[in-house]
Amino acid sequence: MAEIVFNGLLLIACIVMAIVSTTIPIDGKDVLARYWPMGIMIVLIVLLVIKLVNLIRKLPKGTKFKFDLSFLKEKGNLRLFASFVLLFVYAALLPYGGYILTTILFCLCVMWLLGARKPGKMILGSVCITVALFIVFCWGLRVSLPRGYGPLEQISKWLEYLV
Q: Is the pTM of this model over 0.85?
């Protein structure tokens, strides 16, 4: 049941992101700036609908749907729900904290949720993931990432200069 709830929430998030992607402004030659995120979201929506239908078909006959949060008692389900909430917190903080700082913190939190406890490896892994994604988005896809506000913007510019 927890898997159905999680996939349903993920489906709702993808639908919202697909709708938001229709508002991305198109400037000159950057026509794909709107359509590649929209395309990815549509593919994810189709895959999630297929997965939800398959999960519902596999339920035993006579299963009643009731809304309870008892599935959060299991440690794995609680981690899954926490990672889902963490993703929304990351998305909300991204414009304010800038891509680099917010992504490093997000990666650290996800690693901690997954059970990593060695600070050196966690920091190194977070920095490597952030730099790799930065290179893909900025250099490969030519997408400008958020830098944050105030002093965080200056820190983000400095960190981008290092990359």
A: no
